[in-house]
Write a structure and sequence with these properties.
59% of the residues lie in helices and 8% in strands. It has 170 residues and is mostly helical. The longest helix is centred in the middle third of the chain and has 34 residues.
């Protein structure tokens, strides 16, 4: 993760360098063209046009590296968030990171693939569980009062409230 971030930073610096060189060359070309008394004034416009070959790739490199760094930071933030909560709905994680649920799902897949976070996704509850949370789940799946299925998986020590009858269980 650190090497990818360092690489993105290096590419971003290269992009800025190319933007700077291209801009300086463009200004030099325009200045040469304005000074019509100089014998080099005819080459000013071609130099200014040539500078675009530095400006455009520099801008693209800079923007791509910036996007890559933001993506890496989001992946790290999502992994840290899930590790600290032990279990979390993707919708809640997306809301906290101010991204869409689809983005959060993709970022979580990348984080799991890179080994930043371990766990499993429970489709019935829409939650991602870390191994620690999974070991601490309670075996209660139905309300002890009315028998209705519980709407989510509860961890040991959490108060279980049935949405059907409002009954409490521990």
């Amino acid at each position: 993760m650190i090497t990818k971030k360092a690489l993105a930073t290096a590419v971003q610096i290269l992009g800025l360098f190319m933007l700077f060189c291209g801009s300086a060359t463009c200004i030099l070309g325009i200045a040469m063209h304005i000074d019509s008394s100089s014998p080099q004034s005819k080459s000013g416009i071609p130099i200014a046009i040539f500078s675009v070959s530095f400006i455009l790739p520099g801008a693209v490199l800079y923007l791509l590296a910036k996007k890559s760094k933001k993506n890496l930071e989001l992946i790290q933030s999502l992994a840290s968030l899930i590790i600290s909560y032990r279990r979390m709905r993707i919708a809640d994680a997306a809301a906290q990171l101010m991204i869409t649920e689809q983005q959060a799902t993709k970022l979580l897949a990348v984080a799991v693939g890179r080994g930043l976070v371990k766990g499993r996704f429970d489709r019935t509850t829409g939650e991602f569980f870390t191994p620690e949370a999974e070991r601490e789940t309670t075996s209660i799946r139905f309300c002890p009062s009315c028998g209705a299925p519980l709407d989510r998986v509860y961890l040991n020590g959490e108060t279980i409230r049935c949405r059907s009858c409002g009954g409490l269980a521990r």
